[in-house]
Amino acid sequence: MELTLSPKETEVRPNTIPDLKVDATFRKVPKHALTFELWKIDEDRLEAVARPQYGTFYDNCAYIIYASSLVGHYANHETITREQKPNVPLERYIHYWLGSNVSEQNRSNVVHKIQELDTYLGNVASIYRESQNHESARFLSYFKKGYDVLSGALVNSPQGVRLFQLYGRKWLRAVELADIDWTHFNSDYIMVLQMETTTFVWIGRSSASIERRSALSWVQRQRTNCTICIVDDGYEQSMSPEQKQLWNKVLPLQQRMVYQTNKLGSDYDCKTNGDVNGSNKFRIYKCNQRGRLHLDQLDVGVPSKDDLSDAHGVYLLDNYGQSIWLWVGAQATQADALTAMGNGRAFAKKKKYPNSTLVVRVLEGQEPVEFKRLFGNWLTVWQDNTRGHKPVSTKFGKLDAVLLCERPKMAADTQLVDDGRGERILYRIHGDQLEELPPTKVVVFTTNASYVVKYTVQCATVVPADLACVGVKSIIYQWNGSEASAETIAKADGFAMASFEALNGGGMFVQLYEFDETPHFLQLFEGKLIIMRGQRSELLHSNNNLHWDFKTNIMLETFLLKIYGDASYNGKAVEEHPLSSISSKDCYVIKTNHVWVWCGQSSTGDAREMAKSVGALLGESSLVLEGKESKEFWQSVAMYFNQTLVINGQSCASSTTSSSSSGAGSMCNGSSNGGGNISPTLSNNCYLNTTIPTKPRPPVQLFLVWWEQSQLRCEEILGFEQKDLCADSTYILDTGTLAYVWLGSKAVKQERDRYTSIAQCYVQNAPFGRRSATALAVVRQYSEPNVFKGFFEMWQDELGKNFITYEQMRQELGSIAPSNALNEGSALHLNNNQKDFDGHKKYPLSVLVQEMDMLPPEINPLRREVHLTHDDFVSVFKMSFYEFDELPKWKKQELKKLNKLF
After folding, report:
1. Which helix (H) or strand (E) holds 227?
2. How far apart are CA 39 and CA 57, in angstroms?
3. 238, 430, 667, 762 - which has most CB atoms within 10 Å?
4. Distance between CA atoms of 499 and 479, rounded to whole angstroms?
5. CA 112 to CA 23: how far, in whole Å?
6. Which sign, positive or negative, has the C-alpha torsion 231, 232, 234, 240?
7. Cβ burial, residue 134 (10 Å; 0-12/13-18/19+)
């Protein structure tokens, strides 16, 4: 597919770029330093913004931000300029922000200024085009407490009544409105009406607790000597007569119209327009200059880093209108680098994407993490983030359990809570049958069942500080086989969650799928977990006596096990049949009339030790090395194994006999020294080896998540720290191999109860290249394990214990300023009937009394009354909804007919 863009469509035409002379203001910027700079463009003037004004923007202006930080770190508005040595690598970002009312002149001027700054810095920075209300996560991360947007239309008007619209969970946006009118009100927002003596804070019924807290803090910062009056959506009549009189002067209550529709949905939707498995399939175009700009779409299935192959070229990545990325090769000309942003804007116009679409230019070798993670196979980003701790001491297989207790960072890097020697109770679920398995040396899972492990953490220390550092006493693991039925998984879900709830908050819940096993889970079995096909299920579990013996039951069977991993925390044995090819990097255990341990020429010594330990579980075994096999060996294993299958040193091919069901994705797992260790029975569209902690990992990401109209929304928090975790919210910490759901102690009940749904929905729709069957873990506030804490710098167990809720903030304000004195029927004290009433969309009385065919589609004509606000309801029926609901049915109908609501 080809797309041609004419020069007229670009924001600045390439042939009109003047001979660039760098503005004197930019020359003050140190080229090789950590810094954060902010400039404002108003008409033809470029002026530096004073540090106290950082975070305050005008909607008729354009702004430029330059942020520079050490690789893997994040700058913000508090960053102090510090010179660095020339050999210290830095990340550099330029953002230009356009207010909603910015003029075309300002829009053009800022693009020229960006090119000047980019040239001055040597074309090494990533450039982001930001629009008001549609900023990137990186831009928002610069302003930890949010930012204010003031109305340019009111700059020269006398200080009078002002109306602000506040919204945003992690970053509060406070937008000043040019006029004061009910049309700006929305149930999702908090509205602040500032008058000379009183500040009214109107709380939208659909706003979140975290937004309400942020809004009250914002109001207190703005006006310290002003009376604060809090007004609840639908309860405006509860104000005192004096307050109502003030309010009616500018916002007459008889004209009240509050919209219920959500305006923020698409901005924070976790869903991507990729395929249903969430694997990102954005489109890649190669930019070619042929007089006009031509874009040639690359014919690729799943985009990968290798598609960006021309270091002299420019590629455009279209993330389906969510964002447009321009990748400039290291050998591309300076002209290509300078004109890339204009070409991105031209593409957005040609595609009729919104004017607010994020456009970013990145340079080869300087790509930001947001770009890299769009590709499932971009390993270089992970290499940079590997800390390099190794959990294994020089003595094979021995873990330093004391160090894991003392150092959360090591525990997080290795994902090992302890050394796996604590007590474990194992349950097997198949269909509707649940049985506790007797403790045995040999642990065998079958792929058609689910298993639940109750594990008691064993600390290798009695030092109270170290015990507190470990954080959890119990872990509930749920493992689902790839052939397990939906009924089996549902039964296992219920049992595992009930076990987790029974811990009363003092533990962690981890849900795994076959081939997504975490290091600690495998460590419980010392790397000797055996996973067999579902067909073996009846044989293995035919007798239910307590003296069940694996060797007795399996002795008559023949099978082949492939050994994965080379240590106790990444090893396991998986039955494979049929075997399509064999790599010299692999080890196998073959059970026929004898137990054979076959090791390829390229296999490591550690991998061979793991294979021998598995072989020893089956009985007396013989070690066979590739190329030195005996005739007896080949005769014994002929039905499984033959010389024609051996491919020296090459990775094996993917077989058509791929096994998978129940929505569990397949994962390629290999030994720690080679990527060729791929199971022939599994699909090869995987992106990371999850069971080996020494493998490079993607950078860790933190998302604030919430349910909205049965969809999961999320905001990414770049440069996160422990203070970003709020008790009234739910978060996902994505480590690339495990998605942790962190449940705040004050989070809404729906989020606390549906934690697995949150994680599954997030993973399936994650907006970057990944597959869906990533392991999920649930942790609760104040019971975080060391493997979670270690991802945060300087974790403090006491932080957050003095959390002040919105209700407490409101009461404190009430003690120093008159509130709206809500009675017990208020939005804060609701019985079940009242909650049902407040859960409905609200409309003015004039809408509800219309003919049936004129009513909005979501209104039930027989229950029009529930769509009235509380104030309108009391005005019409002369009683509250609670009192009305207690009336006999005939009486209710009579009153509704009387008021034309029937």
Report:
1. strand 227-232
2. 10
3. 667
4. 14
5. 10
6. negative
7. middle
